[in-house]
């Protein structure tokens, strides 16, 4: 039996920073969590969440492209990230098996109406959708961007992998109306400014990854930088300082800071 002093074991999770180039600069898709959910209510986040049992279904592997050389866990994380993004935003990073073309806007909308709720409830797994609709998950489009683990004192902990992906040109983002109440394309610099002004709630891992993303002006530049970078796991350590509780972050993770206030919910 786990004692009160033992940390909660983090659950595997994955999320995607879905990107597009716009006239005013690169934008990332973000969704607002419903104010009635029990975890980071009202926060602006990237589409994503904890892995589902169906993400590890052996049938998924046969329906993935670009996963050669990846571990089973990394394939599962990518499948989970694509599924979560579809559930929460309606964006489906999948291709027609015969043509290799990305799912178009109309088809993505129809698939969303049919599958988003059953996937969210666990009634269906992502493999069921892929087989029924003869689709392939476009895992080659996901670039590993970051890896964060919730600090040990937290009552809910997640072991989260972040990925970058280019948005399919024709698809339209629509929030799920359940956990998420808004979906919007926003420049990283604007999201950061909204958080700084107190207009938006953005949790620490999301904020730090927005800041890192904001170093790039285009999707191509962001992807190139991510591919050339080493993924350093961030498991913040909570320490007491004269100015209050602080989170220690590895300098080699390349976020530009090594300490950050732990008390503020950002």
Which terms summarize this structure?
266 residues; alpha+beta; Nucleoside Triphosphate Pyrophosphohydrolase; seven-stranded mixed sheet; 29% helix
How does this model look, in words?
Helix 2 (about 70-90) packs across helix 3 and helix 5 packs across helix 6. The longest helix is centred in the N-terminal third of the chain and has 18 residues, at about 70-90. The protein has helices at about 60, 70-90, 105-120, 125-135, 190-195, 205-215, 220-230; strands at about 10-20, 25-35, 45, 50, 65, 95, 135-140, 145-150, 160-165, 180-185, 235-240, 245-250, 260. It has seven helices and 13 strands. The chain is globular and about 60 Å long. Strand 11 (about 235-240) and strand 12 form a beta hairpin. Helices cover about 30% and strands about 25% of the residues. The strands form three sheets. Strands 1, 2, 3, 4, 8, 9 and 10 form a seven-stranded mixed beta sheet that branches. The protein has about 270 residues and is of the alpha+beta class. It has a single domain (about 10-230), classed as Nucleoside Triphosphate Pyrophosphohydrolase.
